[in-house]
Amino acid sequence: MKKQDAIDRFGSVRALAAALGCSTQAISQWGEVVPPLRAFQLKEMADGNQKVGEQQPQQQAVQHG
């Protein structure tokens, strides 16, 4: 996926950064192509597996006693 396509999909670099939970500076450091793990994250959002701006839930330790 090209970086500009991702920006266009979200409307702005700021909106894309918010959706990914990163800074606009981080996105500015990408080349022309979205890094593989970020591309996967965007694909998951597009497939409905993760909503825009939603953080992955943190797992809580379960104590057995």
Descriptive overview:
With 65 residues, the protein is an all-alpha fold. Helix content is 49%, strand content 0%. The chain has a domain of 44 residues: lambda repressor-like DNA-binding domains (434 Repressor (Amino-terminal Domain), Orthogonal Bundle), CATH 1.10.260. The longest helix is centred in the middle third of the chain and has 11 residues. The relative contact order is 0.17.
Helix content: 40-55%
| Backbone structural class | mainly alpha
- Main sheet, how many strands, which sense, barrel? none
The total of beta strands comes to 0
Distance between the termini: 48 Å
Strand content is under 5%
Q: Could you name the key traits of this structure?
A:
single chain; 65 residues; mainly alpha; 434 Repressor (Amino-terminal Domain); 4 helices; globular
What's the gist of this structure?
The chain has helices at residues 3-10, 13-20, 24-28, 36-46. It has 65 residues and is an all-alpha fold.
